[in-house]
Amino acid sequence: MITFDHVSFRYDPDQPLVLTDISLQIERGDFVALIGHNGSGKSTLAKLINALLIPTEGDIHVLGYSTKEEADVWAIRQHAGMIFQNPDNQIVASIVEEDVAFGPENLGLETSLIRERVDRALDGVNMREFVTRPPHMLSGGQKQRIAIAGVLAMKPDIIIFDEATSMLDPSGRQEVMDILKELNAQGITIVLITHFMEEALQADYVYVMDQGRIALSGSPLEIFDRQEELTAMNLEVPEILVLTEYLKQHGVPLEPVFEQADLVRQLCQLK
């Protein structure tokens, strides 16, 4: 669904490259996480997917559409929705249902179909009861759910989460992650840009970015097994993996786990 072919990018001709020779492929239904320290190029890469930025070198195709072709940009943005870091920057209306309806209205859909999409999107993020509320009266997690509903109402094939949980408290982050996983289970391709390693653990595949390049790629287990390399890139290994590894080194027979509940379950089963 998404292909980067030797993509490089700089914001200004007089500035150095922000991304250098990026090649990657994301298939339909994948849940992919991009991690890296601040300034590694994660958010820039996210904006390139949605044609908010155009590559300086190389090519990007989304569902076969080229981000370099102006005629393709509208189609790309219909199929690839984006959730930003600050939900306040994405909310445009003073009432929840009007905000969610904004995207479908811009598609020129009939009123009855817009109503159907708004209701379904709000149901999908468990926010139907807030349909007539002003967004500014909602919590950060609830606002982010409204932003997700606005994208869902466009019926995208891909949703890009650009550090969408970074401004939320732990409860709000969990709300968004639960919805994200549910959407992926429904077949929507998810690209998650995050600096929370625990979130990356829940992906199918992880790309690690460092100084504008892809430094590592693989399954979460493969990536987080390379603790020394991650530490050298100023990235932390999730505590659950550190604890599991410590216990294994001290003779406790454990299978790899990503969730605290799974670790507790294994420990309780030991005799």
Order of helices and strands: EEEHEEHEHHHEHEHEEHHHH
Percent of residues in helices comes to 25-40%
Radius of gyration: 20 Å
Gross morphology is globular
Strand order of the largest sheet: 6-7-8-3-9-10
The computed structural class is alpha/beta
Q: What is the number of domains?
A: 1
Tell me the number of strands: 10
CATH top level? Answer: Alpha Beta
The whole-number mean of residue pLDDT values reads 90
- For the termini, the CA-CA separation is 47 Å
CATH architecture: 3-Layer(aba) Sandwich
Residue windows where pLDDT falls under 50 for at least 5 positions: none
Main sheet?
Answer: 6 strands, mixed
**Percentage of residues in DSSP E strands:** 15-25%
Oligomer description: single chain
Describe the structure.
40% of the residues lie in helices and 20% in strands. It has eleven helices and ten strands. It has helices at residues 42-49, 70-79, 96-106, 111-124, 140-152, 170-185, 197-200, 220-224, 227-232, 239-249, 260-269; strands spanning 2-9, 19-26, 31-35, 57-62, 65-66, 80-83, 158-162, 189-193, 205-210, 213-218. The strands form two sheets. The chain has a six-stranded mixed beta sheet, with helices on both faces.
Topology:
Elements: E1 2-9, E2 19-26, E3 31-35, H1 42-49, E4 57-62, E5 65-66, H2 70-79, E6 80-83, H3 96-106, H4 111-124, H5 140-152, E7 158-162, H6 170-185, E8 189-193, H7 197-200, E9 205-210, E10 213-218, H8 220-224, H9 227-232, H10 239-249, H11 260-269
Parallel strand pairs: 3-8, 3-9, 6-7, 7-8
Antiparallel strand pairs: 1-2, 1-4, 4-5, 9-10
